[in-house]
Amino acid sequence: MIDNTTEGRVRAGHEPNPAQAGFSLVELLVVLAIIGMIATMVTPQVLGYLGRAKGETARIQVKNIAQAVELYYLDLGTYPTSQQGLQALVQPTGPGWRGPYVRDARGLTDPWGQPYLYRSPGAAGIPYEVYSLGSDGKVGGTGDGTDVASN
Known about the structure:
- 38% of the residues lie in helices and 6% in strands.
- It has 151 residues and is mainly alpha-helical.
- The protein contains 2 helices and 3 strands.
- The protein has one domain (24-149): Glycoprotein, Type 4 Pilin, CATH 3.30.700.
């Protein structure tokens, strides 16, 4: 008679192989359900952090570009015109230009892929203004769509 029980196989010199042991379908489904629940709780938090990070990145970049505009002013004695725009920071505009004032023209693009905007004179009598229209690309806005300006 053949003894096919675990005890019989062990006695016969055939120990069960733990590497061949697997998970049941129910166990796999439970694990997938737990992973799904964790993902639904964490994803909105991560997306919120990402949106805030882009806004903070835009604020930092606007300040850096404004500093580059100030360096341009120190070299040339005038701010770039609205017509010249921020390209004046990377392309020579005349005698005294000692730029580029930013490392790369790609640095003149906001985190949402839109070019930073520049106007001179700026609002309320300030000499210039560097700004981004936020994620929505429209004046005003809330959340990620909030405008970010140098002044």
